[in-house]
Design a protein that fits this description.
Strand content of chain B: 15-25%
Order of helices and strands of chain B: HEHEEHEHEHEHEHEHEHEHHEHHHEEEEH
CATH topology of the largest domain in chain B: Rossmann fold
Strand content of chain A: under 5%
CATH class of the largest domain in chain B: Alpha Beta
Number of domains of chain B: 2
Structural class of chain B: alpha/beta
Number of helices of chain A: 11
Distance between the termini of chain B: 76 Å
Number of helices of chain B: 15
Number of strands of chain B: 15
Largest sheet of chain B: 6 strands, mixed
Oligomer: heterodimer
Helix content of chain A: over 70%
Order of helices and strands of chain A: HHHHEEHHHHHHH
Distance between the termini of chain A: 43 Å
Largest sheet of chain A: 2 strands, antiparallel
Helix content of chain B: 40-55%
Largest interface: A-B, 44 and 34 residues
Shape of chain A: globular
Number of strands of chain A: 2
Radius of gyration of chain A: 19 Å
Strand order of the largest sheet of chain B: 2-3-1-4-5-6
């Protein structure tokens, strides 16, 4: 009972982290139909820049901003100088982002080495909170849930209630028409890319505080984002939330009860969802 | 255009000729080095090549009156890549002796390949899977470093006698090196009467261990952990954050310098953690101080102290050089003379004497250690006890040891 409860909570907190990472991915895809395979690199860039900021200033909260701004700048540069040239050419964009991710991984390895880094989170977020039945639960992981919910609400308000959100939704439905009614697509794309990249930059700092920063994390989070977004439906924020919950719970409950096969479970879910709903749970045909 | 292309062709041909001339020059011994400069073990690979470089420089790149030519090749830690690179070194670069590889699975693959080229000699770098030399060993594969089970010698006894632990839970990576280390720990701990009440095997590359931590039984006196690199850092942090109070016992990789040098709040959880390895820090002998001083002088950008893989490759290279000196650099034909000499090499290292058993596997000292903090705040492994001349069967009769089977998830077991 205690184990099931703990595994469930672990699953939900991991889902929170996956959602934070995948929200940027799905936002960028929804607006621009760009499968950004350098998304994991942006995660790592955000994490490392955040780490530098935190070690220079000593403030963890500044690391969040540092990571967000750093990743956003890199993301915008990527969009402006590279991806924009291949507008509408899905395969080329996917390939060029793979290339960029390989370059970024090696550059980061050269700059930061193979060591594992960790953030010193503020004292009130470290340690554990006493709870009934399970005894205690890590404070930081509980904070992750709060942060993910706040992010979800924020994104929902942005997409549903603002003019910018209306433009994004229109872009998801019909990009060409959006251009035809006089919206500057390049500007909107750049903004969306900046927002998506900033989100994953923040995720880098938050995720690395919960776990750690090391080479190879880029590929891991790219994969988890892909699975989450494919399960939930490409381009849909609620879809990303549902996908993250499914994958996070499956991973953690699997790790608790049948660890040898836990790696397979998320992919089984993905296959099942694709067989049943090829566009994902909340996705729509492009 | 055509001119330029011709010119380039001539250049290539020239280089190729020069290359093949040096390849077949009679007065050189060609030694291949195989380590990991790609993948998760980059830092270890750098250490390996530092060790070989220093050993060759000390010998002035000559042994037995012949020049040494050193050819480096990099793997990424995967057995198939190590195998391809080993083949390349032997078949294309025509090396006489190969030193490597780095990790357990790679070692098994290279050992099998060694059987196909009986006229070349293979000397293990740092790979530490037990089966490599225990089960159907290759007659031309030598290992001057101890294996993962040997590394845990003395730890089970220390946990039972000194720490007073009776019930221990195991959390370990789900792969051959993990099984090997757990076997090394359990063989002593269980023989003493201790119980391993739960074994939690975690798939490699797991980053979120919270559900594994949740499975640790409350009645365990201590938790034995065997994870490497970033996985270890993640586990330790999450263990600390979960509010768990049980003390830890560490497998060799958990207290490796790559983990100890990582910064984070988990460090305070590590201080006082017992472990065991073929190496330790700050040993109070002149030989050790010289060994460290030499490393620091030659590699000012290296680690804070020489690491275990550095030691593994250093000992291997030293052994090769010693044997070459003995046979006057004769590595022609089937290398029988050289191998005979190599099998009888006895080395005095910073960590004590090293010699080989009949399977060409090292018998050497093992150090039981404890993580301690230096005045400058950095962590190191303080030696507590030396277990002298640990052999591959951990002092047990060989037949009985082999009969118990290769280490696995369920072997050994003492719930």
């Amino acid at each position: 009972m205690k184990l099931l409860l703990l595994a469930t909570m672990n699953g939900v907190t991991l889902a929170a982290l996956y959602f934070i990472v995948a929200s940027g991915f799905t936002l960028i895809f929804g607006m621009m139909r760009v499968v950004n395979l350098a998304h994991g690199s942006l995660y790592l860039i955000g994490a490392y820049i955040g780490y530098d900021v935190a070690s220079v200033t000593g403030y963890w909260f500044l690391a969040l901003f540092g990571g967000a701004i750093g990743a956003a700048l890199v993301g915008v540069a990527m969009q402006y100088f590279v991806l924009d040239r291949y507008q509408g050419q899905d395969l080329r964009q996917a390939l060029v982002t793979i290339g960029l991710s390989l370059i970024a991984a090696d550059l980061l390895l050269a700059r930061y080495g193979g060591m594992t880094y960790q953030f010193e989170v503020p004292e009130f977020l470290y340690g554990s909170v006493p709870m009934p039945i399970v005894g205690g639960y890590p404070t930081f992981r509980l904070a992750l849930i709060v942060f993910a919910i706040a992010l979800y609400v924020g994104l929902w308000l942005l997409v549903q209630r603002t003019r910018f959100g209306i433009i994004i939704r229109a872009g998801v439905d019909d990009r060409q028409m959006l251009g035809a009614v006089g919206i500057n697509l390049t500007r909107v794309s750049t903004l969306v890319f900046a927002l998506g990249s900033a989100l994953v930059g923040v995720a880098g700092v938050v995720g690395s505080s919960a776990l750690s920063i090391a080479p190879g994390e880029d590929a891991r989070y790219l994969l988890s984002s892909l699975v989450v977004v494919i399960v939930g439906g490409m381009g849909s924020i609620p879809g990303a939330a549902i996908g993250a919950l499914l994958v996070g719970l499956a991973e953690q409950i699997g790790l608790a009860y049948f660890p040898t096969y836990s790696v397979v479970i998320s992919f089984v879910i993905m296959v099942a969802v694709l067989a049943w709903r090829p566009y994902g749970l909340l996705g729509r045909p492009a | 255009m055509i001119n330029r292309r011709l010119g380039r062709l001539a250049l290539v041909a020239g280089v190729a000729t020069a290359f093949s001339m040096s390849a077949f020059a009679q007065n050189t011994v060609r030694i291949g080095g195989l380590a990991t400069l790609d993948g998760p073990f980059v830092v270890l690979g750098q250490e390996a090549f530092r060790a070989m470089e220093l050993a060759f420089e000390e010998a002035n790149y000559t042994a037995g009156g012949r020049k040494i030519e050193w050819i480096k090749e990099s793997s990424d830690g995967r057995p198939d890549v190590a195998l391809t690179k080993a083949r390349k070194l032997i078949e294309q670069d025509k090396v006489d002796i190969l030193i490597g590889p780095m990790s357990g699975g790679e070692g098994l693959a290279v050992k099998e390949y060694a059987k196909q080229v009986p006229n070349k000699t293979f000397v293990n770098g740092f790979s530490a899977a037990q089966e490599t030399t225990l089960v159907s060993p290759a007659p031309n594969f030598f290992r001057f470093s101890t294996d993962g089970a040997q590394w845990q010698a003395g730890l089970g006894t220390y946990a039972y006698d000194v720490k007073g632990y009776r019930n221990v839970a195991v959390v370990s990576g789900d792969y051959s090196f993990g099984y090997t280390q757990v076997l090394g720990f359990m063989s002593e701990f269980c023989a003493k009467g201790g119980k391993v009440i739960e074994k939690i095997w975690v798939p490699n590359g797991t980053k979120d261990f919270s559900s594994s931590i949740a499975r640790i039984p409350a009645k365990a006196d201590a938790v034995y952990v065997m994870l490497g690199g970033a996985d270890a850092v993640n586990f330790l942090t999450q263990y600390d954050q979960s509010g768990a109070t049980q003390p830890l016992i560490a497998g060799s990789n958990v207290v490796d310098q790559t983990v100890l040098s990582a910064k984070g709040p988990f460090q305070r959880r590590l201080v006082g953690t017992p472990s065991a390895h073929m190496v330790a820090d700050e040993i109070d002998t002149q030989a050790y101080r010289d060994y460290v001083a030499q490393y620091k002088k030659r590699f000012p950008n290296g680690l804070s102290s020489p690491s275990a893989p550095y030691y593994g490759y250093y000992v291997a290279t030293k052994a090769v050089l010693a044997a070459l000196n003995q046979v006057g650099g004769d590595v022609g034909g089937d290398q029988a003379k050289f191998r005979q000499a190599l099998a009888n090499v006895k080395l005095d290292t910073a960590y004590g004497p090293v010699r080989l058993d009949e399977n060409r596997q090292a018998i050497a000292n093992i150090y039981v250690t404890e993580v301690a903090r230096r005045a400058d705040g950095s962590l190191y492994n303080r030696p507590l006890k030396v277990i002298p001349n640990v052999n591959q069967t951990l002092g047990q009769p060989k037949d009985a040891f082999v009969a118990r089977g290769v280490p696995s998830r369920d072997n050994p077991s003492c719930p």
